[in-house]
Amino acid sequence: MKRATKSRRKAPATVDLDSLIDDLAALKSDFATIVGQIRSGAVDHASERAELLLTQLSDRANALYDTVSEQGAQSVERVSDQVRARPLTSVLVAFGLGFIASRLILR
Predict the structure, then answer these.
(1) How confident is the model at residue 100 (pLDDT cuts 50, 70, 90)?
(2) DSSP 45
(3) What confidence tens digit (pLDDT) does each residue in 32-86 have?
(4) Fewest CB atoms within 10 A around its CB: which of 50, 58, 86, 105?
(5) Cα–Cα–Cα angle for 39, 43, 49, rounded to 5 degrees
(6) What angle do CA 72, 76, 80 make, to 5 degrees?
(7) Which residue intervals of the chain are DSSP H helices?
(8) Residue-level pLDDT at 1
């Protein structure tokens, strides 16, 4: 009888082991699916973040361009005012700078 009892215990144990193996395989598959979803969500989030940063950079670049453009226009205005106020001095300064630049280039 002892053998009969042992054989009865082994049969449910193997069924339970097979059931556990099947459950582990299903769990592994579910885990892989969840990890895939998390990764794609992280990529989507990173893509959204990159797009936001790109928009911010574009806005900053536009603001910087506007500032530089405005400062350039002011500088041109100041130089024009100086040329109008002192035309002879401006011509002599331009000639001197051109002469120095030509000497530097020829070397």
Answers:
(1) very high
(2) H
(3) 877 777 777 766 677 788 888 888 888 889 899 989 888 888 989 998 998 999 9
(4) 105
(5) 140
(6) 170
(7) 2-85, 87-106
(8) 47
Q: 13: exposed, middle or buried (C-beta count within 10 Å: 0-12, 13-18, 19+)? A: exposed
CA distance 35 to 29: 10
The span from the CA of 74 to the CA of 82, in Å, is: 12
Q: Which residues of 49-61 are buried (b: 16+ CB within 10 A; e: fewer)?
A: eeeeeeeeeeeee
SS3 22: helix
Which has the closest alpha carbon to 56: 48, 42, 45?
48
Rg (CA), the chain: 40
Nearest-angstrom CA–CA distance, 107 and 86: 32
